[in-house]
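Table S5 (text form). Sequence records supplied for joint modeling of the four-component complex.
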Amino acid sequence: MEKPPEKARRSIGAKRNPDSADAIRDAAEAVLLEVGYAGFSIEAVARRARAGKPTIYRWWPSKAALLLDVYQRQKRDIDYADTGSVEEDMFRFLKSLFRQWRETPAGSIFRSFVAEAQSDETASAALADYMRERRAHNGRMVERAKARGEVAAGIDSALVADLLSSYAWIHLLTNRLDEDDETIRKAVQVIVKGLLAGGT
Amino acid sequence: MEKPPEKARRSIGAKRNPDSADAIRDAAEAVLLEVGYAGFSIEAVARRARAGKPTIYRWWPSKAALLLDVYQRQKRDIDYADTGSVEEDMFRFLKSLFRQWRETPAGSIFRSFVAEAQSDETASAALADYMRERRAHNGRMVERAKARGEVAAGIDSALVADLLSSYAWIHLLTNRLDEDDETIRKAVQVIVKGLLAGGT
DNA sequence: CTCCATCGAAACGGTACGTTCCGTTAAATA
DNA sequence: TATTTAACGGAACGTACCGTTTCGATGGAG
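The corresponding C-alpha cell record, covering 400 residues in total, follows.
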C-alpha cells in the first residue's frame, strides 16, 4: 500500500484538506492489512498518516465509522456472471469472493468490521443495513434462475442469499478461505440440489 | 447471576482456591451479560469477583482463555433428538440453538468469543478447534439419516453441519435470533431439498 | 484586511493492559 | 512439630490507547 508521507501536510485554509482524508483512509487500510484488527488504533492510523488525532475525530466520529468508510471504499470485483446455471453462478460467486477476501485488504477489513459490530452499536446497525443490501443483491442470482424456471417459484431468494453469505462469513471468520474448488462446489450443490437420496 | 461476594476470599494455603475460580467465572459471565463484550475487561471481572488481577492471570493466560472457559461452562440444552426425519432434526436443532442463544448468556458469550478470535491468535485457534468438534458432532444428524437411506451416500455430513452452523452464526452476529419458525423451516428445507424446480 | 475553519503537534485525564511487589494464609513436606 | 511452598487479595508500576483540549501556523472567504 502507500508509504507514510515524508512530510506532514498542513492546513490548506478554512476547508477540509482532501489529502489528509486520503492519507488517513490509506493509513487505516494499511494498518488493518499489516497488523490486523488487533493493532488497529486511531493513534496507529494517525501516526501512519502523519495526521493529528483531532483531524481524524473531526471527520470520523468513531473507529467504527472509519472502518465502515474504508470498507465501503474497497472495490468489488466479484463474479456476478449469468452463466445460465444457478449452481455455476453460485460457485463462481463464492470462489471469487473467497479470492477477493484472501488477496486484497477487503477480507481483513470486513473481519474487523464484523468484530467491531459485536461491541459497537453504530457498526452493528451499519452492518445490518449492509447485509440487507447484500441479501437483496445476491438474491438476484436466484431470481434469474426462477425467471427461467430453473428454480422453484416458492423459493425465498433472500433466504438462499443468506445461506450463501453465511457460508462465506464463517469461512472468513475462522480462517478457512483456502477451501479448494471441489469443497465449494459441493457446498453449492447441497444448496441447489439438497441432500435427499433418490433425487437427480 | 451471583452477587459480588461481601468479603474477599483469602488464600486457603498452598493450593488453588476453588471459590476464587468460581467467583471469577461467575463474575466474567455476569459482566458479559450485563455490560457486554465492550465492558468485558480483566479489571472489571476482578472488581466484580473481589479477586486480584494476578489471581486471574495466574490461571487464565489471556482474556480469550477466560472467555473460552466461560463459554464451555455453559450448559448445552440443544435438541439433538432423533425424530427419524433429518429435516425435523435440523429444524429442532436450529430452533433450540437460537433459543438458547437468545435466552441464556451463551449467545452473548459466544459472540464475544468470535469477536475476540478476530484479533487474538489464541482465541482463533481455540475457536477453530471448537468448530471442528461441532461439525463432527452436528454431522451425526446427517450420518443417522444416511444410515437409514434418507440422505444420499455421497453427501459430506461435515459440510452440511458447516452450512447449519453458518446460518446460525450469521444470525447471532447480526442480531437476527428472533426468526420465526417458518423462516427457519424454509432455510432447512432449502438445505434438505435444494431449490430446484421439478423436485418433490 | 480581518475572520475563521482547518491543519499537525503536544499534552491532558481516564481506563485497561499485563507485571511486580507485598503481607497473609494454610496445606504440604520433612 | 517446624519449615517450606504456593496461593490469596491488594496496591502500585510502566505502557498503550482512548477521546478531548489547547496551541500556533495556514490560507480561503467575506
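Note: Residues 88 and 163 of chain B are 16 Å apart (CA to CA).
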